Amino acid sequence: MRVSVFGLGYVGSVTAACLADAGHEVVGVDVNPEKVAIINAGDPPVVEPGLGELLAQVVKSGRLKATTSTTNAVRDTDLALICVGTPSGANGELDVSFIRRVGEEIGSVLGGSERVYTVVLRSTVLPGTAEQVLLGALCSASGREPGARLRVAVNPEFMREGSSLRDFQSPPLTLVGCADAETPELLRALYFCVDAPFVSTTIRTAEMVKYVGNAFHAVKVCFANEIADLCTSLDVGAQEVMRIFRMDRTLNVSDSYLRPGFAFGGSCLPKDLRALLYAARRTDVAVPLLSSVIPSNEGQVRRAVDAVLQTRKRRIGVVGLAFKSGTDDLRESPLVSLIETLIGKGLDVRILDGNVSLARLVGANRRYIEEEIPHISSLMCDGVEALLAHADVVVIGNGGEEAELALAGCRPSQVVIDLTRGAVRFAASG
Ligand SMILES: NC(=O)c1ccc[n+]([C@@H]2O[C@H](COP(=O)([O-])OP(=O)(O)OC[C@H]3O[C@@H](n4cnc5c(N)ncnc54)[C@H](O)[C@@H]3O)[C@@H](O)[C@H]2O)c1
Question: Does the pTM exceed 0.90?
């Protein structure tokens, strides 16, 4: 394929060299003539293991050449990969001016022509940037409408400086966000040399996934370091603790606990987190990340309370009372907190949770229900019909069969607040 790569920094120079190595005909573009000259001499513009050798080879073979001319680059290619910088402002705001600029430059070259051109954004940008900034600039400079002849896609990369050549060949996935059916096929062909699952999604999702990854990596680093500080203060070897922690690929390093939904609760997570925070306070260890977890969790309950209050309706039906579906355990259930707050605000609440209803009659939780939450226990309904007959607002607190039945039986006039954030519907449909 004939590809141009705009921005020959870390990402662009590695991308250009690797694509040329795979056999594509690549034109690298940069506004900095020194970088262009360095690449054309077969030298690396950045320090990256293996890049020097690879560049020397692909430049010599003629498959990669660099230029400062957008006109030549667009004329000689069918697809552009945008790898320009997106630096941070003093207030954290993303500077997208380089992206806008490239969009205008490419757009003005495309202006007088009818040819199909695909512009793929590889830089890290917030959701909306590709459509508003890049596509906006391309369209206004070219006078074209977005569509068949002018396609835009987002293709974030997952390379790490220091191992980016290896990461280019074997990324965790090849992610493409676009709005048409042809572009994923084009990018499959571009990345035929890359050994990774190919994931096609919407433009905004692809933009966001990159940020989620980096935010998670940052959280993981700080988590491991705070745990290490705690380990040291408790006279435990941090490396050994984390080595064993990482061995658990079912609950720890896994997709468990990473599904959006409602707040956590139960008999373990809140209690054990509090014990760790107390140990940190006693030993004067600062753990700002761990300390922020319970306030963050409480924020989820407040968010649910606000969502119910905003409906301005009084008759509320909540599906789920236990801290998660499939259990009758009410200890530190965030749904109990939510319901107590709603009752305190004067709302008329009814609750459906078959497991808790059963526990009210028999089982180990009977005493807890009778002694700790009698005011809530008396609000239990004995079936979906009774809950739906009462409620103007249906709050789905836990997933499961009762939630599915409630959703299926809702009247159009009833407001549904799904605290599982769609998980119950996904479960129902898939
Ligand atoms: N560095 C990394 O490891 C890494 C990893 C993942 C994602 N990213 C993202 O990729 C993007 C690029 O990062 P980078 O580290 O390669 O940036 P960089 O600053 O090293 O390189 C950007 C290049 O773009 C050039 N440029 C600016 N305006 C241009 C224009 N109008 N036309 C052509 N070239 C232009 C600059 O001269 C520079 O050489 C950023 O959005 C970054 O967040 C970087």
Answer: yes
